[in-house]
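Example 3.2
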Amino acid sequence: VMVALAERASVDSPEDMKEVGDLALELGVQLNEEKTRPPAAVAMWLFDGMAETLPGGYDKGELSPNSPVKELKSFPQDLVLVGRASILIKGLSNRLNIPWSLAREWAPIARRVLDRSTISEPAQTESRIRFRDVWSYFKEWGQGKASVVGRRLPAPIRTRVAGLVLKIQDSRARRAMRRGKP
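Structure, written as tokens:
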């Protein structure tokens, strides 16, 4: 949906609007009545804040009587938070007169993901998984988990753990200084 919205020629292009609408329906959006324009209008209203007009003559305002939101029967649970965040950012950007479109922001990422998922060739040497990469991800994950656990500890224990962590970091820094590493 993001790539289709970012690459569409115009709102007047029936091919582009059909593609956007079909992709919106694939996300799990269900409409009250089967019409041709509402799926595309809902996708544009939700994910493209820079759209000047919506297909089918719908209004951009969510509280408008002619809003594409009125055509929604159900919305996929997986997209509720994305939709809420998108509407919040869109409202802020409109208020501050900053043009912003979720589709344009996410389209490059979506293209990379789609390009990787369509490659059927065996993995090349550049994309090999290295042990040091796995180890660094594991360390990062462990540090994140440790910080979550540390925040949940009672204050006296948290103070002792913080002191212990500082001692360990200090001894590592001294050891590195003796070896000549800055």
